[in-house]
Every structure is written in structure tokens, then in C-alpha cells.
Specification:
By secondary structure, the protein is of the alpha/beta class. The protein contains ten helices and 13 strands.
Amino acid sequence: MRFCLSWKCFQYNEAKKGNYIMCGEDLIKNVSFIVASGSARKGASLLSNEHHWKNALELLLLCKRPVIVTGFYAKERRAPETDGPIGAAILGRALKSLGKKVLLVTDWRCRGVVEAASLPVRGPKTLVASGGEQVLRLRPDLLVFLKRPGKARDGRYYNTRGLDITDVTDPLDEAVSIAKDVSENLKVIGIGDGGNEAGMGVFLQELILSEPEFGKCFSVVKGDAAIACDVSNWGAYGLVALMSCVTGRFLLHDEGEELQMIMAMLGAGAVDGKTLERSPFVKGLHLSRNQEIVSRLGLVVKETYL
């Protein structure tokens, strides 16, 4: 397959699976602007940069056994958040469509909601883990932490309201440090919107300088690539859009599937992480706003290779 854009050509070589040439810079800028415009006015999205998007895209295209770790528990409501599982399901389905042996992993508290998000779109199977060692037993060559808490400097976990959530967070992010200790060649991608997620530690210093009042909350767990976005789900959508453009296959979902997934999650007990209400919102943004992002990314993909 070969596709020519006005600013650059890129190619996916079917004969040599995994031989990709990166997509055009303008395309990455367009996609990242849609999902990381800084509309949240705080958090990590303003740190989005092309270098990390390119690295993440390449890691996703070249991996063989990716594991997507998600699930953020709202301690105040004793329920999982709506942000994370949908993005994990769509990213996982895209990787599955490309022949990757992909799995979703979460903890027991978030299992029902993650499964509920994945089932309507025939996404990957969901497994439960309680620590990093269990994650590594799956033998991944790539870990994608999508809206998953990451340890802060004091070794504890926090939400963006500054609440200590260590007692309701299983340390799945420890897979990163364990893998480094045994010299495993494991790559890591972090996707987040607040900076307190696993993999987002690459932005630690910038986040502390920009939001010193939340300094204790930010994660120190670093990824090889970190996708900063307005809503964590949107970061996954953006990557799937880019994967679609490179492979010439429409891998994104549609507005109807977005509705199906969020309603399934609400039925499984999920709440919006910002309002803490069981309603069709993600990070305080109504379903219609999330559907708009899906539609805009879909148009970018179609205009690119159709």
C-alpha cells in the first residue's frame, strides 16, 4: 500500500509486516490539535508534542504482544471512571485488527467497567492483575498505560483532586520498574490528561513548574512515549486515527459505538471522573462532545486516504 499526501508520502509494506514510514508532520499536528488543544486549561495536554506522538505510533505499529493497562477508580464514589476503558477498547480493537496479540488489563475494582466498554465493539479480552509481576507474566513487548494511576514521588497514588487513592489502587505500574530491573526490553507508552498517570513521568518537571499546587500528585513513572491530551480516551482515538492513515484501514469507531460503550459502562457502575455522577459524561464533557471528537478524527482519516 502507498499513499501520497501533499506534504509527504508514507508507505506500509504488506510484504514485510511492520515496515512503516512515518506519516506526515502536518497530519500528526492536525490530529494532536483535535485531541490536545488545551481546552481543559490545566493538566498535561498543553505538553503534547509531535516527538512523542511519532514514537508512540511507531511502537504501536511494530509491537507484537501489546498489553493495555487501564482503569482509574473514583474513591469518593467507589466506582471506576468513564475515562480510559473506552479508549483502551478502541485502541485494543485497532491493534487486534492489525494482527497483534493484544490484551486489556485492569484491577478487580475496574474489571466490570473495562469489560463493559470492550464487549460492544468486540474489543480484546480483559484480564485482572493485582501487581506488576502478574502483568509481566503475559509477556508483553509493549505496555500502554491509558488513564491508569502512576506512583508519585512519595510512592503513593493520587487523583487530580489531591486525594490519596493508594488504598484503592493496585500497583500495576510497577511492571515498568520490575522490567527494568531484570533488563527486559519492554517499551512503555503513557496516555493521560492530568500527569498523575503511569507513563507520564517524562513531563514531571514541566508539570511541577506549571502547577506547583498539584506537585505531589504527578507520576514519576516514565514511558518511552507519552501522549498528553485533553481527555485520555481522546489520546487513544488520536493514535488509532494515525494508525488508520498509515495502514490505509479505517480502524476508528463511530458515534453510535461511542454511545454504546458509555451506556454499557454506566450500566456496569461507572461514573464521570470530574462530576462524580453516573451520567453520560467523560471528564465533565457530555457524550455529544466526545462524539464530536470521534467524528472530526474520522473526517481526517477519510480525507487522508480516500
